[in-house]
Amino acid sequence: MESSSTVLEDGRADLPERILGDWGGSLYPIGSVVAPLWHGYSMWGFEGLMLQLVDRPDLVRYAVERFTHHAVDQVRSAARFGALGIWIEDCMTDMMSTAHLRSFHLPYLRRITDEIRGQGMHSIHYFCGNPAGKWAVLLDTGADALSLEESKKGFTIDVDDVVDRVDGRMTILGNLDAIELLEHGSRDELRAEIGRQIAAGRRNGSRFIMSLGSPVTPGTPVSRVRAYCDLVHELGV
């Protein structure tokens, strides 16, 4: 694993330094890390990780410890590059029990969010999947902000319900439906949903960032993305 000093010494910091020098004053540069337990899927596969949690918990804990060490170093490198925030990608852990999340996931996430805060940055925890039954864990990660998917895959995530649960304890990112509404909805439907989410965000003490629940789909015209951005700026004042 490379250290942040190595990354700086070999010249990989040159480009971000030039970019921030030209546009850094008007941007919010972020880095990203992967939540440690999610790395286990790439090592053992879905079924393999689920079985390892039960059959070989010490091995899983050792692997997660190593992944956390690597994520912390990535955070330090990002800080030295000039990042102001870190996006923590966390997928498929919604299918684990709360007990497993508290044992194999939460302590390591907290080490990462503590490091991010210690480096003077903010953390955004992007939890993919269904948060039902996991809210106590999501509110205990130490992250500055929480980002969730839109309603899909057989579950519902309503921003008003999220606000009621978070109750101002952290910033919430919006979860506008990028798959159906952004690509196919009318401008009036888009305006209504943006307005609804912004109103919900104001109930969270205005600790809210309008956002999408998923990446923009390939079939979405650029004009629709521009309309989305224009409406957010108009309704968010």
Helix-strand blueprint:
Blueprint: H1 4-9, H2 14-23, E1 30-34, H3 39-55, H4 57-81, E2 85-90, H5 98-104, H6 106-118, E3 122-127, H7 135-138, E4 145-148, H8 159-166, E5 171-173, H9 181-184, H10 187-203, E6 208-209, H11 222-235
Parallel strand pairs: 1-2, 2-3, 3-4, 4-5, 5-6
Helix pairs in contact: 3-4, 4-6, 8-10, 10-11
Q: Could you describe the 3D structure shown?
A:
With 237 residues, this protein is of the alpha/beta class. The protein has 2 domains: 27-132, 2-Layer Sandwich (Transcription Regulator spoIIAA); 149-237, no CATH class. Helix content is 53%, strand content 11%. The protein is built from 11 helices and 6 strands. The chain has helices at 4-9, 14-23, 39-55, 57-81, 98-104, 106-118, 135-138, 159-166, 181-184, 187-203, 222-235, and strands spanning 30-34, 85-90, 122-127, 145-148, 171-173, 208-209. The protein has a 6-stranded parallel beta sheet with strand order 1-2-3-4-5-6. Strand 3, helix 7 and strand 4 form a beta-alpha-beta unit. Helix 3 runs antiparallel to helix 4 (57-81), helix 4 runs parallel beside helix 6 and helix 8 (159-166) runs parallel beside helix 10. The radius of gyration is 19 Å and the shape is globular. The N and C termini lie far apart (45 Å).
